[in-house]
User: Fold this.
Amino acid sequence: MTSSEAIEGRSPGLRERKKAKTRAAIQQAAMRLFRERGYDGATVEDIAEAAEVSPSTFFRYFPTKEDVVLRDDYDELLLEVFLAQPPDLTPLQAARAALHSIGGVADALSPEERELERLRMAMTFTVPEVRARWINELVRAFRTLAEGVAARAGRPADDVRVRTFVGAVIGVMLVAMEPLVEDPTREWTEFLPAIDEALGYLEQGLPL
Amino acid sequence: MTSSEAIEGRSPGLRERKKAKTRAAIQQAAMRLFRERGYDGATVEDIAEAAEVSPSTFFRYFPTKEDVVLRDDYDELLLEVFLAQPPDLTPLQAARAALHSIGGVADALSPEERELERLRMAMTFTVPEVRARWINELVRAFRTLAEGVAARAGRPADDVRVRTFVGAVIGVMLVAMEPLVEDPTREWTEFLPAIDEALGYLEQGLPL
DNA sequence: CTTCCATCCGATAGTAACTATCATGGAAGT
DNA sequence: ACTTCCATGATAGTTACTATCGGATGGAAG
Assistant:
């Protein structure tokens, strides 16, 4: 609205930069403490102290303690790649193709980033509170994926067939990744072949 | 181990009866308060007071506040009915048949029971904390259903195809019931036809 | 460079969901 | 009747989170 916002896109100003910095400081301090002492072993107060901010500030940046862990960009990325697939593929084929490309993206990460992602994923699946909150991300993913599929299929997003498709795909991906709960040391990319296989069975009408 | 446990099955003794009574008292008091003031409007202290027990006792019977709402016998019932279907049906056909029978069971409830179930379901889907914890029930349902399907198909429960089947079915049921979030006044039995239709699409290999 | 405003931050106080512990009184076995 | 067991209540404490308020600071206008 004001003239300052009109020039948005240019160097974000000192205030914005500071905010990004504190946000990153909080997240990094939190993940470090989680790795050292576990999720329950690090209180919000500990994290705030390690990041050199007040507990109030922690909650200004992250509405809950779980949100520090749950910030995930992969859903969005996966959707993007899915939408970019050639339009002559069926939705299931497009999903499988998108999975393959995203595996390549994950392989290109640095070792530290990989380890961080692994820790995030492990906590998402094993820490009860985090896993509980994670369902919100799932719902979000479901909605966006439904829109993508609908656009591809030329149907409305609330079409029964579109919703069924998305529900089945997400359900299948979930159970394919479930072994992560039992062995959190593994990386999620190891499960891409399993997901692919499962999607194949879906395509065949669930043979048993 | 002791002689008292050997005669189990006979009248449970005064102690057991009292326990069942307090448990019911807590649950009923809680649901009444939830209906009157909403989930957040009734604290555990309020519930304990209404049930004439101490807050300590509340947590002895229900490990969390959410558990008062989440106790659900339908999963178990659905599984039972599913297993009782004639063995010549395919798993998907058996699932659809089980759904039909369970609709009849729900219709036979008294109006108060129906209203209570409706309230439980509405809170399960709309109160964020409850919905979050609900994922644990889902995991449990997934595991038991997988065993049932495995037994039917003559395959191990950790077979990829069995797991895929179960994941798809549960995912489809979830999205079919999702409109409950937007309109919690509706009963879940209204969605049985929608679930049935969705399972049909699954059987056809997800046509789009 | 000053003034003024929006907003970011820290401090404080408070709430609510749990947890741990211990003494007590009543139920169950002998 | 006696003792063992165990459900209960009381108390104190921890932790995640909320509300509020005064002070510091960045940023735009004069």
